[in-house]
């Protein structure tokens, strides 16, 4: 997708007789790329209007960095779509917070409820699970296995067939035991059916959740809009979790779900493993949707500067990218300047630095380097997973570097994005262009 958009913009900016018609053609090409990435058709039409309103043809006069302007507009508009500016529910310690999952069968509810319970448990909450899926044979076993692995207490029944009764009993039991996060997993059906919706509403009335979360398969595509509307109407969920974002799907469906229901995405599932759950952030998500920045260009530039790149290049060829590699890259960038140009080549970094001038940008970079320098060697040479399994490291580093937890988390997100890219590029720099094309 990113490649197609880049190509459309480049065609335009290279075109010798830049006219209104060529500009229209470019907007059209961008929009059809977005529709192909499963962004809802109506949303794309709106986006098209926004682009036309924001970037007028006369703005594209010589001297304006047209490419940047257009790309930034597309990026900003997509971020706007995926960010409903609604605050998601924040559970309180010392109180029983009931969270109920809804969604179609196979969406990833059972997998994700354990991930989420573990996520809260790792942050000091007393968390547990209730299996209210009495519809699918084996549902309770699946939850039991996951929960046992994650050491999360659970409740369910092999004999009780009424999901409402099981849900009520489980939630009451755990409330008495003063659990702070009680997650209720429910059944799904293959299709949206009235009895599924009826069951959802009955469970809701029985357990009175503080938050209902819709779990949606990230590869759902154009069906996302209609499906999320139907669930919103029946179960009025207050948050969305998108699963399987590690898959090949373009992810445009997620944007449609948010836009259709004005409900924030709170987490994304990034794999089948228990730790594969990330807090959702609009900017990195859109950045990923649109492509990967200009990594190939950056590497070329860096090579031409003859900076010390040996280890990183070797790592990338092996499909590895450590936190230390990120630190080395950051300090190289400081040497390379001008920052605004360089940052634009690194996926995610330009968004993080969006709107900053070069001075603010270098302050930000310097803080990122401080963060790395507060890490132990083990952390620096890791693939970043140690921070997921032991989040207390993040607090320690924030304190040690005089930055914030948020900034450390941003840096780790940035690192993960680059590590994923390195994985795709395994086999050498020559493959980079290909890897970019595949996104
Ligand atoms: P449910 O029917 O909604 O409870 O869905 P499940 O939790 O049983 O998940 C269905 C399948 O999707 C399982 O094979 C999961 O391992 C898989 N799955 C769930 N979340 C993710 C994810 O984020 N990434 C990947 N790759 N697979 C996932
Ligand atoms: Mg299930």
TrEMBL record:
Fungal signal recognition particle consists of a 7S RNA molecule (scR1) and at least six protein subunits: srp72, srp68, srp54, sec65, srp21 and srp14. Signal-recognition-particle (SRP) assembly has a crucial role in targeting secretory proteins to the rough endoplasmic reticulum (ER) membrane. SRP is required for the cotranslational protein translocation for ER import and preferentially recognizes strongly hydrophobic signal sequences. It is involved in targeting the nascent chain-ribosome (RNC) complex to the ER and is proposed to participate in the arrest of nascent chain elongation during membrane targeting. SRP54 binds to the signal sequence of presecretory protein when they emerge from the ribosomes. Residues 264-277 form the SRP54-type proteins GTP-binding domain. This is Signal recognition particle 54 kDa protein. Keywords: Cytoplasm, Endoplasmic reticulum, GTP-binding, Hydrolase, Nucleotide-binding, Ribonucleoprotein, RNA-binding, Signal recognition particle. It catalyses: GTP + H2O = GDP + phosphate + H(+). One of its GO terms (biological process) is SRP-dependent cotranslational protein targeting to membrane, translocation. The keyword GTP-binding applies. One of its GO terms (molecular function) is GTPase activity. Belongs to the GTP-binding SRP family. SRP54 subfamily. The M domain binds the 7SL RNA and the signal sequence of presecretory proteins. The NG domain, also named G domain, is a special guanosine triphosphatase (GTPase) domain, which binds GTP and forms a guanosine 5'-triphosphate (GTP)-dependent complex with a homologous NG domain in the SRP receptor subunit srp101. The two NG domains undergo cooperative rearrangements upon their assembly, which culminate in the reciprocal activation of the GTPase activity of one another. SRP receptor compaction upon binding with cargo-loaded SRP and GTPase rearrangement drive SRP-mediated cotranslational protein translocation into the ER. The lineage of its organism: Eukaryota, Fungi, Dikarya, Ascomycota, Pezizomycotina. GO terms for cellular component: cytosol; endoplasmic reticulum; signal recognition particle, endoplasmic reticulum targeting. It is found in: Cytoplasm; Endoplasmic reticulum.
